[in-house]
Amino acid sequence: MSARNLVLIGFMGVGKSTVGRQCAANLQFDFEDTDRVIEAKMGCSVAEVFAEQGEGAFRSLERTVIADLASEAGQVIATGGGAPLDPVNAANLRAGGLVVLLTATPTTILRRVGNLGTRPLLAGAADPRAVIIELLGARMPLYRKAAHLSIDTTHRTVKQLSDEIADLFRRESAR
Ligand code: S3P
Q: Which residues, 6+ apart, have CB-to-CB distance to 78 below 8 Å?
């Protein structure tokens, strides 16, 4: 495989953006985060898009952004946690690069997501850990299907992860 982009997928809070930014620095690639691209296009936050236009409108924007980014090259792309559940997004991402799934335990995810207000799917939940467990159960098979490979981030530092993933990408691209 000669991958044009490195794509990071996985649940909220697994570290896609933090690790992705460091991978981009390692590979001297551009870094793109689909949520941030949507926010720049819309001039408001993801939480505001959900609140004012609904999840359907957000998913439609997300599909357009992913199709555009995946057709380019030389980028590390961090996707929103729901993006690869859509089969068209999954196919575009797989065609556009090496897709790496980052995973973490529900407890680690809950700790890492911090301010739930910025995550509309968790904001307002009486028991956010239970919501994380339920969503993870439903999503994990689709994440695994979309990914070329998977890496557990639970006990790893950003540096360890970004060094390992950048090396994997270099090896896969040289094949
Ligand atoms: C979502 C994850 C969020 C964002 C939106 C929906 C999801 O991105 O796209 O709130 O469905 O899991 P992060 O994974 O970057 O938090």
A: 8, 16, 17, 20, 21, 31, 32, 33, 34
pTM: 0.96
76 C-alpha to ligand 1 centroid (Å): 17
Residue for token pair 């981009």:
24
Strand order through the sheet with 30-33: 30-33, 75-78, 5-9, 97-103, 149-152
As a whole number of angstroms, the distance between CA 92 and CA 87 comes to: 9
For residue range 130-158, list pLDDT tens digits in order. 999 999 999 999 999 999 999 999 999 99
d(CA 55, CA 17): 21
- Separation between Cα atoms, residue 51 and residue 66, nearest integer Å: 22
Q: How far is the CA of 79 from the centre of ligand 1 (A)?
A: 8
Q: Measuring from atom 2 of ligand 1, which residue has the nearest CA?
A: 81
